[in-house]
Amino acid sequence: FNDTAPTEIYTLSNDALPIYVVQYVLDGKDPTVNDAIAELFLPHLVMLSTNKFSSNVVEKVVKGCSPALKEKYVMLLFDQNVLMRLLRDDYGNYVVQTALTEAPYNHAEQLVMCIRPVLHHIRNAPYAKKLEAKMDLCLKKKGGNYAALTTAAVSAITASRIIRTTCTTINTTTCNRTNSPTSSSITTTDI
After folding, report:
1. Cβ burial, residue 41 (10 Å; 0-12/13-18/19+)
2. Residue 173 pLDDT exceeds 60
3. Ordered DSSP codes for the chain
4. What is the Cα–Cα distance from 183 to 40, expressed in whole angstroms?
5. pTM over 0.85
6. What's the burial of 59, exposed, middle or buried (CB within 10 Å: 0-12/13-18/19+)?
7. Within 10 A of 58 (CB to CB), how many other CB atoms are there?
8. What is the pLDDT of residues 87-143, one digit of tens each?
9. pLDDT tens profile 21-61
10. Residue pair 177/183 in contact by the 8 Å Cβ criterion
11. What is the pLDDT of residue 158?
């Protein structure tokens, strides 16, 4: 791989034939080669995952790379901007589903905690129910205490995380009360 890799990645992602070649190489299941491809694709996760041809390759990369690289891919999905772009995309959502099934339990649990609060944004998408079912199935198969939590408990946990995250990003002058008669505390419309 060389310095022109990002340009080649973009070209590759828009052409079906080279994608088939990469899939063939990944099917060889050589850990060194698969990890090299995974490292090369990692910085381009969103672009490759939202493309008709290359999204399948990203899924194969996630399935075939080392546990350390799987962790890197899943950790990228913890970023709400990345996650939302993939969840809203007809191809990218399959990459998220693959990451859920391939992630170790603790990462799958965290990924579900990231997805649940934004699931309403894709509620009408044809793949939304499948994603939700996969989240539940994945957590039940992998075990742990999280699978036993009720939907209400999950909602309460995710709501507290959203509020905490939102409050830390709001300008502190907006959050602080001043002595002026027109000031008030934060309302739900501020958040």
Report:
1. buried
2. no
3. --TTHHHHHHHHHT-HHHHHHHHHHHHT--HHHHHHHHHHHGGGHHHHHTSTTHHHHHHHHHHHS-HHHHHHHHHHHTSHHHHHHHHTSTTHHHHHHHHHHHS-HHHHHHHHHHHGGGGGGGTTSTTHHHHHHHHHHHHHHH-SSGGGS-HHHHHHHHHHHHHHHHHHHS-HHHHS--SSTT--PPPTTT-
4. 51
5. no
6. buried
7. 29
8. 999 999 999 999 999 998 889 999 999 999 999 999 999 999 999 999 988 888 766
9. 889 989 999 999 999 999 999 999 999 999 998 999 999 99
10. yes
11. 54
- Looking up tokens 């079906």, which residue turns up? 16
The one-letter amino acid at 75: M
Instruction: Please enumerate in sequence order all residues whose Cβ is within 8 A of that of 37, keeping only pairs 6 or more positions apart, or say none.
Output: 22, 25, 26, 61, 65
Average pLDDT over residues 4-24: 75
Residue 161 confidence (pLDDT) above 80: no
With tokens 């080279």, the residue in question is: 18
Tokens 């191809």: give the residue: 91
